[in-house]
């Protein structure tokens, strides 16, 4: 009364797991880049522009 080996299970789920991971990773990367990173860079550039303008007025 032995248990039959499970074959092909890894191969069947591999492509689903791989495409899901790549899709979610890419989506999270774009969300971070456009939702967080670019806003921080814009705020930093505005700060340095304001600082440069205040130095020129002095």
Structure commentary:
This protein is 84% helix and 0% strand. It is mostly helical and 58 residues long. It has a domain at 27-58. The longest helix has 49 residues, at 9-57. It is rod-shaped. The model has no long low-confidence stretch (mean pLDDT 90).
Average pLDDT: 90
Major β-sheet profile: none
Distance between the termini: 91 Å
Our estimate of the beta-strand percent is under 5%
Give the % helix. Answer: over 70%
Number of strands: 0
Poorly predicted regions are: none
Net shape: rod-shaped
Please, how many helices? 1
Brief account:
With 58 residues, this protein is an all-alpha fold. The chain contains 1 helix and no strands.
Key descriptive features of the protein:
58 residues; mainly alpha; 1 helix
Layout of SSEs?
Layout: H1 9-57
